[in-house]
Amino acid sequence: MTQDLTIDLGEQMLNCRAAGIIVKDNHVLLHKNKKDPFWTLIGGRIQLGEDSAHAVEREFEEELGISAKADRLLWVVENFFAYRDYPFHEYSFIYLIKDVENKLQGNGEVISHVAGDFIYEWIPLERIEAISLKPDFLREKLVNLPSVPVHLIHKEKISVEAE
User: Fold this and answer.
1) Widest CA span of the chain, in angstroms?
2) Distance between CA atoms of 19 and 68, rounded to whole angstroms?
3) pLDDT per position in the chain (163 positions), as tens?
4) Given CA atoms 73, 29, 27, 25 in this order, what sign does their dihedral have?
5) Inter-residue long-range contacts of 128-131, CB under 8 Å, 24+ positions, other chains counted
6) What angle do CA 66, 70, 29 make, to 5 degrees?
7) Exposure letters 78-98 (e unless 16+ CB within 10 A, then b)
């Protein structure tokens, strides 16, 4: 039995997440829950006994049906935010991802993929600053990815409501 590294502490949620950035033709692949007004990186919760690189590879396989490789770690983020008025303390590991079999097309066109509750879309990097993206530091950082892993502490004070 697999168990997500998420602990509901009653008044706050502790969460461990792995996410990935895949860039092709100056577009980044993002997704959003149909109920939320914002975009986010593809990823999910790390499972007990699983390392973060494997977790993000597993999430890309589950969500998009592709073989993905965690190329290199970009950020380790201590992320503090509220989602639907519930406070979260989250540890995120964000990787640069390679599409191993080159199945995803990001050829300059915005291509949508809809699966379940999520919409997947290639967003042009020049539009990143204009969209609602969580965590919000990504709007600035996605256009200039670090060459070595960076530790960030990100505190977002705005509550995110579902539509």
Assistant:
1) 45
2) 12
3) 689 999 999 989 999 999 999 998 889 999 998 899 999 999 999 999 999 999 999 999 988 888 999 999 999 999 999 988 889 999 999 999 998 888 776 654 444 555 678 888 889 999 999 999 999 999 999 999 999 999 999 998 654 454 4
4) positive
5) 128/28, 131/39
6) 55
7) ebbbbbeeeebebbbbbbbbb
Query: Quick one: tokens of 41?
Result: 């990186």
Question: Hey, which bits of 11-102 come out as E strands?
Answer: 13-21, 23-24, 27-33, 39-40, 42-45, 68-83, 86-99
At residue 108, the pLDDT reads 42
Q: Are 44 and 117 in contact (CB under 8 A)?
A: no
Write the CB contacts of 98 (distance below 8 Å, at least 6 apart in sequence).
Answer: 22, 68, 69, 71
pTM for the full predicted model: 0.89
Q: DSSP 3-state assignment of 34?
A: coil
